[in-house]
């Protein structure tokens, strides 16, 4: 896959628990529209119509696995943090610099 500027893009689909996959179709958030795109300049996180964020790669301070398994699924915001997930397993935390984007972190579960 390539971006509009011709650079290579790596796409990581957001993983969905089997039970949430069914529910997500009902509310218009199919797994096919839920992913993380990564190229040399930016990161894009998307979950259908419910969430879309784009931030520059240099804004990423750290990336790590989340030690806890969040109970909820879908898109949630709390204290400047976004949880974007279709599964409680394999959740990745991306910490961002506060000066570059209006959010401080994004958590999502990607297929490995």
- CATH classification class: Mainly Beta
Output the radius of gyration. 14 Å
Estimated structural class? mainly beta
The helix-strand sequence is EHEEEEEEEE
The percent range for helix content is under 10%
How many helices? The count is 1
Record the strand order, biggest sheet: 5-8-9-7-6
Approximately what portion of the residues adopt beta-strand conformation?
Answer: 35-45%
What is the 3D shape? Answer: globular
Q: What is the CATH topology descriptor?
A: PH-domain like
Number of domains: 1
The total count of strands amounts to 9
The stretches of 5 or more residues where confidence is low (pLDDT under 50) are none
Straight-line N-to-C gap: 18 Å
Can you summarize the main beta sheet? Answer: 5 strands, mixed
Q: How would you sum up this structure, described in words?
A:
With 112 residues, the chain is mainly β. The chain has one domain: PH-domain like (Roll). It is 8% helix and 43% strand. It contains one helix and nine strands. The chain has one helix spanning 18-26; strands spanning 10-13, 34-38, 42-47, 51-56, 60-65, 74-78, 81-85, 91-96, 105-109. A five-stranded mixed β-sheet has the order 5-8-9-7-6, with no helix packed on it. A four-stranded antiparallel β-sheet has the order 1-2-3-4, with no helix packed on it. A hairpin with an 8-residue loop joins strand 8 and strand 9 (105-109). The chain is globular and about 35 Å long. The mean pLDDT is 79.
